[in-house]
Amino acid sequence: MGLLVEVYTGLMDRLSPQLGEHGLSTVDFNVLVRLARSSEQRLRMSDLAAQTSLSTSGVTRVVDRLEKEGLVARENCPTDRRALFAVLTRDGADRIGGVLPGHVELIQTWLLDPLADGQLDGLLDGLRVVRDTANPGARAGITS
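That's the MarR family transcriptional regulator sequence above. Prediction below.
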């Protein structure tokens, strides 16, 4: 467990400053990326909370902040009056689009380049198994 924490901490120390240059925290980035990669760039608030491991009140606070910045909007669910969607706005998509090239470059440098041929597939396979066991909500709302 210590090794996993050390890897995570080291990577976040390398990635967070670049996110900050674009006015995003790691939590903001996580929310925006999950919306960007979702069908129609929207998720039910409950699914977004499950995917990000935030409480419902925590995801509400993040979406409130992102909504004030014009990066996310809320929309009512047409089939369930109790549900709300968080929806990535054009400005949100533009912000993520501006962040991703540098983010991907840092991931390449600090995560992918150090691995020898064949190590990445094994790492990803193992991480998916652990994720699906320890955090099944990480795929909430994903239909494919």
